Structure formats: structure tokens, C-alpha cells
Amino acid sequence: MRAHPMVGDSVIAVMLLLIDVAFFLTVGAVPEEANAEPAPSVGWYVALPVDLAMVLPLVFRRKHPLAVAYALLVLGAVHANLQLGLSSLVASCIGVYSVVVYVGRKHGAVYLALMIVGSVAQLVVQGRQDWLVNSIVAVLLVAFSWLLGEFVGARRAYQAEVEARLHLLETERDQATRIAVGEERSRIARELHDVVAHAVSVIVVQADGASYAIRSQPDVAERAVRTISETGRSALAELRRLLDVLRDEDGGGEPRLPQPNAAELAELTERVRAAGLPVRLELDGDLADLPAGVSLGVYRIVQESLTNTLKHAGKGARAEVRIRRSDDSVHVEVSDDGAGRARALVSTPGAESRGGNGLIGMRERANVFGGTMAAGPSPGGGWVVRATLPVRLAT
Prior knowledge:
Helix content is about 65%, strand content about 10%.
């Protein structure tokens, strides 16, 4: 019935038609003086088409409720005047219900007023002695139909509101899922960039050095090859860790191995020194109790800055890393001398693009924690990266 509502309406129409046909046959077969109700004054060839026309619009009452209601009003007047049964009264009540539920109260009130006036006028014109009782019964039936329509209409409105809210919640959930997936993809992309860019830069520098020293300085070449091997293994372990994060379905996306932090900066600078870039590390303050995210951010910013120095500063460059911890923030400064080459005091267009995606990743890391990051050429030559990250994250 819910999937095909016209079937249910058709069943109602057929039942009313059978009741009217039974009324016509029963009342017409009894002598008039014994009838409690007046016998139909027309033949079956008139009564049957009128009965059929009376109930047929009910089949379409859901698709065209207002048009069907007024058609029932007109046909009901003809049906009631011919005294052919109960279809006119029942169909009129169904018309009131349909208008209230599917159209609205305003149209329902107009329709109800017209129907009551027409019914009372019809009873008075017919001159029946029980017109007052019949009018009261008709009004009560119509009022019941109105109240039933109000109840069903309210239920339908409530159900529509619930469905709309459920749809909104599902949309918000899907949107939140997409945002979370995007953030996780961005985090993993930053991690991959930091790991791969740093490792590949070290490997390239060491490989170039080994190729030059392999004949004249075999010991230096051997150390370079050893550094390449260690850097490759470290990068491979990092990549496996990130792949474990992607494959982990039960771990909530948490890495299975600890991520690097600010306490490992000395080890990082040592690896960069082994790659051929002299680095001076200066630490001011305790970095051991930094929040895990801030500590990782400091490590990655220093790592990316030194990687850019390896790639762009040139042979003979030197770098300095200064980390200063205050009560409420950590200040990071990584600078290089550009191998002694002076730069213009005014940056040229595109100078800020050094490092490419690396600068974007560093800036995003700082912004995530409510910090700031700036990078650009030093007035006396070289490149400098400055970042400030708050120690106490906003809650």
C-alpha cells in the first residue's frame, strides 16, 4: 500500500461502490411503505454510472487532492439528491481529510465551509423532517475527518523534519570524513616529503663526493658510501612506518614506531655533517617536555631547512641552527651563508619559492600549532628560516 498508494485508494473506491450497489438492490427490493429510508427514484442505468462517477475520483485523491475534493463536492450533491447511498457522505469526508493533509488548512477551511453550507441547504430544500439531526451527524463526521487530517498532517510534517535532519547529519558526517581524510593525506604527504627529500639530498651529495674521491681518497669514498647506506636504511624505515599507518585498520591511524622529536636534533645535525655540510647547533632551554606535535614540528622544520641548504647553498656552505625555548614558545632559526655568495638586499621575484613544497610544508606545520614561519634570503648572503611555535596549544 505504501509503495503503491493508488491501490489502497482503488480498494476504498471499490468498497464504497459495492456498498452503494448493495443499498440500491436492497432498498429497491423492499416495498416503499416498509422502508426506513426512501427508495431510490431512478433506475439502475442511472444509479450505477452516478455511483461509479462518485467513487472514481477517490483513486486520484493523492495526486490531485484539491481538484478531486471539489469534484466530489459537485458529484456528492447529485448523488445525495438521488438518494443512492452513503458514498456522497463518506467521499466528502475523505475529501476534507485529503485537502487538510495534502494541500493545507486554508484550502481545507474554504472547502469545509462550502461543503457544510451545501449539505445543510440540500437537507432544507429536500424538506426532510430529520434534517437537523442529519446535519449534526454530517458536521460531526466532517469535523472528525478534519481532526484526523490534522493528526496525519502533523505526523507527516514531523517525519519529513526527521528525515531532513537525518540527511543533514549524514551530509555533515560525510563532510567531516572527507575533511579528516584530507588532513591525514596532507600529513602523510608532508611526512613523505620530509623523509624522502632529506634522504635523497644526503644520498646525492654523498654519491657525488664518493665519485670524486673514489680513486684519490678511498677512505673518504668509503665513509660516503657508508653514509649513503645508513641514510637509505633510515629512509626505508620511515617509509615503512608511514605505510604501516596507511595499512593499520585497528590502530586508529597511530604510527607503530615513535616519531622523531626535538631531542633528536643533535643526531640530525650529525647526519648532515656527515653529508658534507658543516652545521653548528645551538640549543637554549629544555626541549624534552615539549608537546609531541610541537616537538615533531621543530624537528621537521630544521630537517627541511638543512635539506634545502644541502641542495641549494652550494659547495663550501655552512649552516647554523639555533633553538631557543621560552616560557610560552619555541623559536627556531636555521641559516646558511650561501657558500660566501652575497645576495641582493631586495628579494627578487620568485626568491621566496626556494624549497618549493618544503616551504609550504614548514609553513603549514607552524600554522597548525598557531605559530609563524618566515623564510628568505639574508642581507649578507645565504638563506634564513625563522619559525615560532607556541609551547602551550590552545584548547
